[in-house]
Amino acid sequence: MFYLDFQKADCKNCYKCLRACPVKAIDMRNQQAKIIESRCILCGHCTHVCPQNAKSVHDDTKAVEQLLAKNKNVIASVAPSFVSSFGLSDFEPFRAALKELGFTEAYETSEGAVAVTAEYKKLLESGKYENFITSACPAVNRAIQLYHRDVLKFLAPVDSPMVAHAKMLKSRYPKADILFIGPCIAKKREAAESGIITAALTFEELTSLFARRGITVGGVKQDKKPEGKKAVGTEKSAPVAEVAACADCKTVADGEALRSKFYPISRGIIKSFGDFPKGYEYIAIDGVERLDRALEDLRDIKGVFLEINACDGACVNGPCAIKHRGGAVEANVLVRNYTNSSAPDPVGTYPSLKAEHPPIEPGDRVPTEDEIASVLRSIGKVKPSDELNCGACGYSTCREKAWAVINGYAEEEMCVPYMREKAESMGNVIIENSPNGLIVCDKSLKITEINRRACELIGQDRPEYIFDCFDPTAAFKATESGRPVRVDKIKLEKTGRYVDMNIVPLAKENALLVVLTDITDKVNYDEEIEKVKRGTLEVTDTVIEKQMRVAQEIASLLGETTAETKVALLKLKSAMLKDDKS
């Protein structure tokens, strides 16, 4: 199972998800985008830009519903950014809504953030770090493990507030299932890898669960005490400090708890420090796009504390935060007001928060220069000036695109300038070698394109207007009606050629396409056939007339001969009769 779902979609070569992905974890082949799981840091950028809505966060609501239905001891760890997503100024209504949903208890993850800040301070004060990178954002941690392994030595070996809080809750409720609730997709993978968190639920998923149960956050009634079950919330008053500390547990002063609720906003980790360990410049970086530049700079300097968040504006602007009209600005205001008005959570002891962030090999092949040059040549880039680095394919540079092709993540045809040039080149070859005359003109009938064959037919070299070539009546009719018009057997005066003319309106281009089909040979052939027909008819008429004369003459001669024969025979008959009587 992966944490982002890609549905099969009718991709339109927009490459938006590829452009939005800061680590290019998109496999774009066969007109279909897919996640490259080994490269993905789960920042969630791609889920917001796809016009086909083909990318979504894996939905865990059914699994959570089943867990809540069968388990009587499920504890929620709630990211402090709930304030901005749900528009609340107090945690109690949120806790009540979660209990109505089936959670046994709910606590703010800021309890874990207090302990994380304390660990950061100790590491900074040790003087062992030339530079220091916070480890609170799992998407950033993954990016460094995959793509910036040379600065892993600066990444704090400390659990995130979510994992730290889960460890604290597990020490308090050893048999409970711990669920994290927040605005982050990357927390789902971090939760699964932690081994102590059952699941991570996004605010969007939680909203869906509330809707299914008809639960309104804020103003909901507390659950009544079920029979045979401890009243929900009775464990709330037991602070962590009252739990027997483990051998390596550490203690945090309650005064630092309040500032830990700044974590979900930009510079929130820095704000959580009461006093700053000396020797560092404290800088906050928001957005994965800025991460690369910041880490490149970190290689050449010393004494920098970097708070890095994958999301612009930090966690309040996470991929699964509930967005409101005021956006990240209003979210910041809500969190600040909440932090400044709420009482600190009681945090006394906490277990070891040591974390390891080993380097991760993405498994990509590093191509040779010859391989890259070969791919570049295949898309018409034979010299450096051909490498436009336009980013239309989704990759920042042509060389990066070549790398993707070699690794099987992209296709050569994704290069938009190359394909356009290829299409135009092929189109020009077809147009110039077409046996038909082709003319393109605007609505004023001014010719904008004309091929060689059309010039030959009309007997002019690059005429300016249609009416310089032939009667424009049909062209005006096509313009007015918006429908194709056909005129058969037009004689072009200058060349004497005959053509059939088709005029097609091009609505999108606001133009007309005139196609001239040369039918001169057919017309000439038809005329020759007609001439032969006329000659044949004339000969036939002459023969018939002559035959009629001959017939008449024969008939006349036959008539005279027959009459003479009749007379002779009658005379012979008469003579014979006379002989018989005598």
What's the β-strand tally?
18
Quick check: average pLDDT? Answer: 84
- Share of residues in helices: 40-55%
Oligomer kind: single chain
Q: Give the number of helices.
A: 19
Task: Describe the overall structure.
This protein is of the alpha/beta class and 582 residues long. It has 19 helices and 18 strands. Strands 15-14-18-17-16 form a 5-stranded antiparallel β-sheet, sandwiched between helices. Strands 6-5-8-9 form a 4-stranded parallel β-sheet, with helices on both faces. A 3-stranded parallel β-sheet has the order 7-12-11, with helices on one face. A hairpin with a 4-residue loop joins strand 14 (437-442) and strand 15. Helix 14 (369-378) crosses helix 15 (398-406). The longest helix is centred in the C-terminal third of the chain and has 62 residues, at 520-581. It is elongated.
List the helices and strands and how they pair.
Elements: E1 4-6, H1 16-20, E2 26-29, E3 32-35, H2 46-49, E4 55-57, H3 61-70, E5 74-78, H4 82-86, H5 92-101, E6 105-108, H6 110-125, E7 132-133, H7 138-147, H8 161-172, E8 177-182, H9 186-194, E9 199-202, H10 203-213, E10 250-251, H11 268-271, E11 281-286, H12 288-298, E12 304-309, H13 327-341, E13 349-350, H14 369-378, H15 398-406, H16 416-432, E14 437-442, E15 447-450, H17 452-458, H18 473-481, E16 485-491, E17 498-506, E18 511-518, H19 520-581
Helix pairs in contact: 6-8, 14-15
